[in-house]
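Narrative summary of target 7.
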Amino acid sequence: ASFASSSSDHSVMICFLRTSSTTYPEVRVVNCDNSWDWSPSTSVRYGDSYVYAAGTSRWGDYTGISRKHNSSDKEVWLAGQYGTFDNYFETWIAQVLDYSTKINENNLNESNIIIYPNPVVNTFQIQFYLENRSNVEITIIDINGKIMKLLFKDNLAAGKNILLFNKNELSSGVYFLNIKANNKVIKNEKIIITE
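Modeled conformation, tokenized:
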């Protein structure tokens, strides 16, 4: 759909669906401006789970995008299907008013990080969603600020990530789980290790 700011501007916004072995079915947009510069794609609605597609189930039939022509500013509306927690497709409708071509270097935020169980008996999970591929580092720090264990340091794919760890080499006590994305601390949560 046109995302132009004038009659000579040929900028467009493209809505598309994406899935992979590491990404649940989701709805995304990408912008191509008048100079043919492509932005990074941005998630409009990420998938909550995989979809059980049986029989004649089809993905993408209810996908579309259109400019709101009577709007004084750039504005498009779109619809696309994503995977729900109950393993079906649902249609998501969204309005796009503005778009930045800059990559958000910190696309992991504290509110979407789940750590459980806590207290930890044997193993624990960290679950979070990444907007873009990011470098993630997870460490265990004691109450004096000393790094006790580097749990993870690597690039992770966009989408939902679930990491499973065990408490090996950690004695019972109180620690802090420190999570960084692209070298910025996102979460520093107290965890309790038990016998």
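The longest strand covers residues 23-32.
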